[in-house]
Known about the structure:
globular, about 270 residues, about 40% helix, Rossmann fold, alpha/beta
Amino acid sequence: MSERYVHGYSEREKQRLAAQADTLTELLHGDTIYPPGAFVLEAGCGVGAQTVILARRSPQARFLAIDISADSLAQTGDSVADAGLGNVRFQQADIFRLPFDDNAFDHIFLCFVLEHLNRPLEALLHLKRVLKPGGTITVIEGDHGSVHFYPECGEARRVIQCLIDIQAGLGGNALIGRELYPLLSAAGFRNAAVSPRLVYVDASRPHLEEGFTKDTFTAMVEGVRDQAFNLGMVDPATWEKGIRGLLRTTAGDGTFCYTFFKGTAVK
């Protein structure tokens, strides 16, 4: 993975990831079900926000969740244990140096991982090696360039761009969602298919105003505040106005939308 995870490893980030997973479960995972006996590799599981959802939705499949961070894996273990799930194992591993035999897994799943890697195509090639012929890969990524909202606010656009630029500086790509199809194709997977998953929020959807606009997206942007200041990207007044602009979209006359991309393919 890239040298630094742009969002950090704070307790607040763990809470943000949990809010994101809970809010978007059906949108992102409603069509992700693995058959009984399937052996699934979740690559880059982080703190387990997606792991619990996957394992709960496919209780007779077996999951191996890997991450480069031992601390994140420990939190994943706690989350899985708290959920009472017994179909998940954990292992510390680097996607670029996978300690598995060729053709070891029936399926591979990764969510919000490629955006943090400076060599996403190489990562897909490593994952392809350990996938059985005829096995599937599922990849989910966001795209911060897909954000649209009302009322429009230039300062809000500015703080979002700070996140995009900071992630790029760390070797990642906050716009990678739009690249899933060419990446899967370039890695030599067959039958690649990508579907956009639109999150649309207005006052008739208060659970999304809270769970997505505030606790997921705006919280994610707020997480790079100190980095943006240290890099001289924005002044404090502009930053505060930008964050207020994002939160303003949760008022009665506001709207907010964002697109995730879910790609599937076959080896």
